Each structure stands twice: as structure tokens, then as C-alpha cells.
Amino acid sequence: MKTGWLEIELRSELCAATGEGVVGVIDTEIAQEYGLPVIPAKRIKGCLHEVAKELCDWGVFPRSTMEALFGLPGQEKSSALYIQDAHFYKLPNQGIEAIENYDVFLAGLKRQKEITPAQTLDALTSLRTRTAIEDNSGSAKPNSLRTMRVLNKGSVMRCEIQLDTTKEQEDELLEWFEQCAKGLRNMGLGRTRGLGEVRCRIMGMETLLPLANESVRIDQQGNVQLRYSLHLDTPVMVPGQNGLYNTCEDWIPGSVILGALAGVYITDHALGENAHEDADFSRIFLRGGVKFGYAFPAIGDKVFYPCPASWLR
User: Fold this and answer.
1) Cα atoms found within 13 Å of the Cα of residue 122, Cβ hemisphere only
2) Dihedrals φ, ψ of 33, to 5°?
């Protein structure tokens, strides 16, 4: 498995719309996380897939390679290419240097009481208005004024990518994926009206290093990824959104696992009410030093993930 980064440099303003807005203020809002702009992973993968389709139509890109990279509708296994959301990385024009560890930066931003998410979003984005013009009179059409939020030109977004395939296909798929990244020149709304011009490049592709235990891996930044299993000796009930007496979750959220392990740590080290003063406890459980994923039901090697109700219907 290879892992690395896809950097997306904005050559013009870009609108990664969510389909939502602010009544009376913004008609088209962008995806964001606590004020930091985000480009959803499915948008990025969809745009790259469109590039691959065009290259296939031109006879440049092998169709079998495209299917291996991006998968086919209804296939049982996921595709070889895995893309995460693109988070804000840097804005050189305004002197904002690279955010190497996004999770740590986000956690620190949330602890800042002086800066609100709205202020952060306003500093990194702009509002653009447009209207339709009457052909005959040349004046604005009634009720046609629209306002959208856009990411500022010069911003750089970055997302983690993983290429999970056999060692024999690894180099070939990576080479073709780099061609798709080079060919991606536009994304988002308003691509025919001067918005969404981008330049993409692959950075730091390295092979994940397996340790003695195959469930433990190390990425290119030295972060350890550990997969483990929970064996329940007795039934476990996790309250749902409407409370324990109304709903019970079908999985164990990461926050529940974090809280359980934090309690064990406090007991083993006899920290009591002064747990926050312990440097290791603070680093692991309070400052995001360790991230805990969700635990889903599994039978053997098969893991059962939740799906939308529309799929069930």
C-alpha cells in the first residue's frame, strides 16, 4: 500500500458548494469544518474519474486501469484508490504557512475563544454576487441576484490518498493516477464562468511499513495506525441520538472507546481529579494525540458498516 498527499492549488476562486445557504445572506455556502474550508473527498474523486474517462475516450488511458483505480458501480470490493477530504493547507498570499498537522491545528483552533468559526471562514473566503440581465432592456432581471461563498485564489488544499493494490500493479496505477491529477484543471461551481481553476500534484508517495503485527502500519509522517478488535463478554448498550430509553447504537463510537480507556488510565495511575495535570494523559486523551475510530460489528474478516436508509429501501 502506498500513501501520500494530493495538493490542490487554486488558480482562481473556487466554490465547493454544499447545497445549503444562509437565508437572506448567502445563497450558496461552501463545505467547512469549524471555519476551515473543506473539499469533500467524493467531489475530488469524481473530478479525477471524469478526467480518466476523457483519457479513455481519447485512447490514452487503459479502461482496465481506470476500473482498477476508481472501481465499478455495484462491485463488492472498494477500488484501489482511497481519497480523504481535502483540508485547508496554506494561503501564501496572506502569509499563512503550511499546516503540517491539520488535526492538531484544528484542535488548537477550537480551544481559541477569541476567534469564532465565522471569523475564520470570513478570513479565508470571499463572497461573490451575480445576477441575470434582460436581453431587451439590459437591466437586471427581478429576483435574480445570487450570492455565493468562494475560497480565495492562491489557497492550497491538501488531502491524503492511499493506493491499496498488489505490488505488481502499484507502480503502474500510481503512474496513471499522476496523469489524472495533472489533467484535473477545474472543479466546483462556476467552472465555465472563471471559477474553479486548479492545479494538482502528488506529493510524498511512500509505502506503508508493516510491522511484526500486520494490523499495525506507519505512514510517511511516522504516525502509527493500529487496528484492533473488541470482544464483548456481555452485552453493551450505547445511547443513540434520542437517549438510551429510545434508541441504541449498532456500533461503538470512538468517543466511547476514548472515555473507557481514559478511565482505565486514570485508575491505573491513581490520577483522580488531577488527571488533566498529567502530561501523558493530556497528550493522549485531551489534545488529540491519539484518535479513536468507530468499532463496527464483525464476523471473521467481514466488517458490517452502516448504510443510508435509502439503500435499505
Assistant:
1) 6
2) -130, 105
Give kind and range of the element (H or E) at residue 142.
none
Please name which of 27, 302, 304, 44 lies closest in space to residue 196, comparing C-alpha atoms.
Answer: 44
Residue 130 · residue 65 · CB < 8 Å: no
Helix axis angle, 63-70 to 41-57, nearest 10°: 170
177 by Cβ neighbours in 10 Å (0-12 / 13-18 / 19+) ranks as buried
**Residues β-bridged to residue 160:** 5
- Alpha carbon distances (Å) from 239 to 169, 243, 303: 44, 5, 21
Fill in the DSSP letter of residue 92.
G
One-letter amino acid at 195 equals L
- State which residues of the chain have pLDDT below 70: 24, 75-77, 95, 207-215, 218-222, 244
Query: Count H helices, E strands: the chain?
Result: 8, 16
Q: What is the pLDDT of residues 239-279, one digit of tens each?
A: 877 776 777 888 898 888 999 999 999 999 888 888 888 88
Please say whether the beta carbons of 150 and 13 come within 8 A: yes
Rounded Cα distance between 10 and 92, Å, is 11
Place of cell 473556487: 14
The pLDDT assigned to 213 comes to 53
Give CA–CA dist 138/195, Å, rounded. Answer: 24
d(CA 129, CA 143): 13
The helix/strand/coil state of 73 is coil
| DSSP assignment letter at 255 | H
Question: Residue 122: which region, alpha, beta or left (left: phi > 0; alpha: psi -120 to 50)?
Answer: alpha
Q: Specify the pTM.
A: 0.68
Cell of 266: 486514570
